Amino acid sequence: MRVIVDANIPAAERCFGELGEVVAVPGREIDGASLAGAEALIVRSITRVDAALLEAAERAGARLRFVGTCTIGTDHIDQAALSERGVDFSSAPGCNAEAVVDYVVSSLALLAEREGTSIDQRRVGIVGAGNVGERLYRRLMALGLDCRRCDPPRAEAEPGERFYGLDELCQWADVLCLHTPLVCGGPHATHHLLDAERIDALAPGTWLLNAGRGDCLDGTALRQRLAMSGDLRCVLDVWEGEPAIDEGLRRLVDIATPHIAGYSLDGKLRGTQQIYAAAMRCFELPVRLSLDDLAPPPPLSRLELGRGLPPWDALRLCMRAVYDVRRDHDGLARMAIEQGMARGFDAWRADYPLRREFSTLEVAMGMDGRSLAPLLVAAGFRVN
């Protein structure tokens, strides 16, 4: 059996090698010709699997029986086209949600530090309460923040839960986090959900973060608002037109990263393992590998805190010991200078530095520091 995998998928040979020959191809280069003879295709979010690709693959002699995406999102997959051809499909819901939440908390902590405040002084509106948004909501609430959610589909399905309308949320929140999938039509369309009118209506001083889908936010309107008044703090991990993103907008936002919010090694391996298990079931083979089999020990597994650190300083120290979002902001800026925007964007993703999740770090502290334990646990660390 021939299995085509995105070259950025870790442990692919170890997992999918059980099926046969594994051929790694850069995600943006997967086309019909590269799928010749393939029976399985494993992708990430940058590969569009639609009727055109499937038809080209069939002309090249592909015999696809399984397609998997090692990602939460599925808007790059034409599931109807797969179903018409009898091709099994699986995604990896929740695989990198914790990594995205780590990214958001790290980014908010950095913005707070730059403004001389702490994030518990902000009111956070979360737009999209799916795998990522709901985890973010629970973590920020545990950290003591005032949070509200907007999710119209969930509001309809769960009338007992409290959700808010988008415009109401935008008026109330001074931090707005977007975590919606891209939906281009229907009653809950999210394309340009944050359009020019809503961007213009945001109160000065609002923090705006998008780690969902780039097309859910009108980048041109945001660039115009920032160029004119510069009165918003912005964190963008996803962009319209990736990888050839708007260079002018990148220069204006506070934190600009190349769609890597979920790029922890743990999240990637979790996605690989989920799709591996689905593929084994599709081909009626035993699932031999678990996440524990794939994940190596973290390079920093334990940190001991001394006395005297204020709580939010201690939290920032622990977060940065595991992941510092400034590395990814600076890396994108450097790659854009060295290789140009589009190539630099993909280069940072392709050679992404090792990153683990907060949960891989155990924090040790003496009796003097026990009061810090609830805050650190709420942020996702293990405390001893």
From TrEMBL:
Active site, UniProt feature: R213, E242, H259
Domain spans labelled D-isomer specific 2-hydroxyacid dehydrogenase NAD-binding: 113-261
Catalytic reaction list: 4-phospho-D-erythronate + NAD(+) = (R)-3-hydroxy-2-oxo-4-phosphooxybutanoate + NADH + H(+)
GO terms (BP aspect): pyridoxine biosynthetic process
Highest taxon, organism lineage: Bacteria
Top EC group: oxidoreductase
Xref: CDD domains: ErythrP_dh (cd12158)
Keywords noted in UniProt: Cytoplasm, NAD, Oxidoreductase, Pyridoxine biosynthesis
A GO term, aspect molecular function: NAD binding
Domain Erythronate-4-phosphate dehydrogenase dimerisation: from-to ranges: 296-366
Principal place of residence: cytoplasm
Keyword Lipid biosynthesis attached: no
Residue ranges annotated for the D-isomer specific 2-hydroxyacid dehydrogenase catalytic domain, each copy included: 34-262
Any Pfam family the entry gives: 2-Hacid_dh
GO CC terms: cytosol
Residues the entry annotates as binding NAD(+): D151, T180, D237, G262
Subcellular location: Cytoplasm
Positions that bind substrate: S45, T71, Y263
Pathway listed: Cofactor biosynthesis; pyridoxine 5'-phosphate biosynthesis; pyridoxine 5'-phosphate from D-erythrose 4-phosphate: step 2/5
Protein family membership: Belongs to the D-isomer specific 2-hydroxyacid dehydrogenase family. PdxB subfamily.
PANTHER family documented for this protein: 2-HYDROXYACID DEHYDROGENASE YGL185C-RELATED, 2-HYDROXYACID DEHYDROGENASE-RELATED
Subunit structure: Homodimer.
Cross-referenced HAMAP family: PdxB
Function: Catalyzes the oxidation of erythronate-4-phosphate to 3-hydroxy-2-oxo-4-phosphonooxybutanoate.
Protein name as it appears in the record: Erythronate-4-phosphate dehydrogenase
Species of the source: Franzmannia pantelleriensis
Recorded name of the encoding gene: pdxB
